[in-house]
Sequence to fold (189 residues):
Amino acid sequence: MRASDLGRGARTSRRTKVFSTTLALISALAICGSRRAMAFPWSIDMFRTESVKPLQEAPRVMPPDALPTKNGELPMSRVVAARSLHNPLGPTEDNIAHGKDLYATYCAVCHGMTGKGDGPVAYWLTIPPANLITSAGFQTDGYMYGTIRDGGIVMPSYADAMVPKERWQVVVFLRYLAGGKTAGQVSGK
Ligand code: HEC
Fold:
């Protein structure tokens, strides 16, 4: 190695030292000069606020045999619902109109606005949507209500989507759609 090479090496390392010292000074100034920079690590600030964390408190355990007292319904099969539940609503204009709106939102996609099982997604289903006009002829209001609440073999449950009154309004609308039969005209209701 020649002397000139050594000189060049020394010059380069001096330059590197000056550069890194300047960089360190700038960083130190940036950190001390800005109060916000001191809040690091900022990414968990929100996490550290006063809050109840999920499952921090164990869910309340219901005493054995506890039953809901408001708007609650006992679990029951469709067969039991068919003979023990009765429609408390009459076929008023209001009930029919609300039932129709709910039916259009939740049911028509499969059963069709005609109720004949010809909704736009019906062709996707291996078990076709029931023809509700036909079944209204032999099924009770309680059976329809139970089906809406708990679902069927492939039909989804609408227990969370509607309160009991709304489910009965859908039943009122189904009776209306099927030819104006009202509760009591199908045996067993
Ligand atoms: C995803 C499609 C789908 C939707 C949405 C749907 N159903 Fe059904 N429904 C079915 C299918 C399929 C059957 C027949 C097989 C079964 O019981 O699951 C059925 C069966 C029924 C039956 C029983 C008919 C009988 O004679 O056994 C009733 C009543 C009924 N649906 C009413 C409704 C009402 C009211 C809604 C809206 C709240 C609704 N369905 C929403 C697919 C659907």
